[in-house]
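Consider the following assembly input.
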Amino acid sequence: MNKTQNNKAWLLVLPVFLLVAFSAIIPLMTVVNYSVQDIFDQNSAYFVGAEWYREVLLDPRLHDSLLRQFGFSGAVLLIEIPLGILVALMMPTRGVMASLSLILLAIPLLIPWNVVGTIWQIFGRADIGLFGWALNNLGVDYNYAANPTDAWFTVLLMDVWHWTSLVALLCYSGLRAIPEAFYQAARIDRASKWAIFRFIQLPRLKSVLIIGVLLRFMDSFMIYTEPFVLTGGGPGNSTTFLSQTLTQMAIGQFDLGPAAAFSLVYFLIVLLVSWLFFTTITHLDNRK
Amino acid sequence: MNWMAWTLTTGVFFSVIAVMLIAMTVWELRCPSTERRGFLPIETSRGDRLFIGLLSSAFIHLLFLGLTELSLWIALTISVVWLAVVLRWG
Amino acid sequence: MPMTKTKTLGITLYILFVLTPIYWLLNMSFKTNEEITGDLSFWPKEFTFDNYMVIFTDPSWYMGYFNSMTYVALNVVITLMVALPAAYAFSRYKFLGDKQMFFWLLTNRMAPPAVFLLPFFQLYSSVGLFDTHIAVALAHCLFNVPLAVWILEGFMSGVPKEIDETAYIDGYSFPRFFVRIFLPMIRSGIGVSAFFAFMFSWVELLLARTLTSVEAKPIAAIMTRTIGATGVDWGVLAAAGVLTILPGLLVIWFVRNHVAKGFALGRV
């Protein structure tokens, strides 16, 4: 759509700008201020310059949790996006069953995040949880509280359970928007299932998939509540992701300076990745 | 505002950013820019180039901190030059 | 057709996977603690409502639901009120810094909450809003408003511009056109944005917990009470968990007919 140039449109955006700026810019400035000071309490803070930045950039603990974070977000995207597409393709297209499966699939999305953690904490326990009990009865030595591999597996499974529905629902609505004529044409051409998917369905899913990938990347990158409730970051540090490391530093040890410095580094990384992503999309759109 | 823990350095930093944004707005109102293609691989407007310049400056500083023991003034000088280059030819 | 059968089987299996952990929570919520920690059973042997009674008879429990609902509702209203005009501006006009503004709004979904908690706490304390519902509602706008603008902008771009122009020629003023003609045309968009705002506000805990202490404490934060000195009160924990799922179910029921269209966020 060709838009008209009109700077008065700013008046319509102003409420959003003020509202978001209040909650975004003031805290962000404060975090920047924290990051250059050694803070003991409200009244005694000492300027240390870029010291914390140097420290956190060389801190192996933060490197580890950043790597773990990239591993986790990567795994989440690799599993949830294809699985979500698959689920969307399998969903019934009309009738009561369609509504029913929509509602059932959406349930995990609407559960408070700490309850999600609680559900899986219970579900995976060998003594009172169905999942842990079943695995152990099948002869699998499964204990997410003691074994790092099991803990990782459980956190991933929980995230897949929690968020694949979002991808599936996005794709489902994308698929519904494809006109029936496209399929008829394909049938006349005797296109294979795979050809239909590759050349008709997938291209039409592009825009919803972009939203899905962006949302899942941003949200999984700052995951905190669910693994915190489920494993508490353990065993050891095996499931301590970035947000949790930062929270431990900021609140647990009251190392506000380093925590602030690192969250700004982290913010810059996410900003860069998202900007690259966003620019690529808009420029691909413009080329069309 | 005491809890915001302002320091002179960060105060100057945010003032500079604010002045830049205001200056860009005034400039843009006086003579609107069009998107063009420079040495960057995408078409950019003036505002885009400012953002690219600032973001990459931040990463230049981080690289200096993480990899070298050199003074940040060097990083700052490089960033200013880089920002000017991106704004002019980017 | 064998293909349809495979599909039905696949989707059934996936839905079973989604429902099993919830079934287990529901199952536990009707058991006594002795039965939970004793032998594993697929169905409560002594069916009991005691766990739910604990919640429904204690104000410090059920007020948690009330608090959560209040700030979520406030948040949905505020989000829509500010996002609708902004989305219209983004979908219809070019203006100074529009693209930068749009991207900046989106970046607010990316800030790591952990370290921002303390400044948030101090910010809302300093303006005297600490421990109020409106504080949580405003804080949640940080990530809900950008998303709502994004979704609504998609829907509005799908409405041809000629409609606006015709209405203006017919003598409609902007506010009247917006409310009487434009909003009804993007009904499902509004429904879906409201759904997303509800969803992200309802499930968020960190900010809600940080900004409240007694008066506006959300239910999800109250749940940690079940972990006491004598161990975890699993039954009550499960019952409280089940009750947090119900409002979501209700909301999805209302928007189910818009969901198919709406989840595409108008950009197919």
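Chain C has two domains: 1-48, 58-262. Ask yourself how this observation constrains the way the partners meet.
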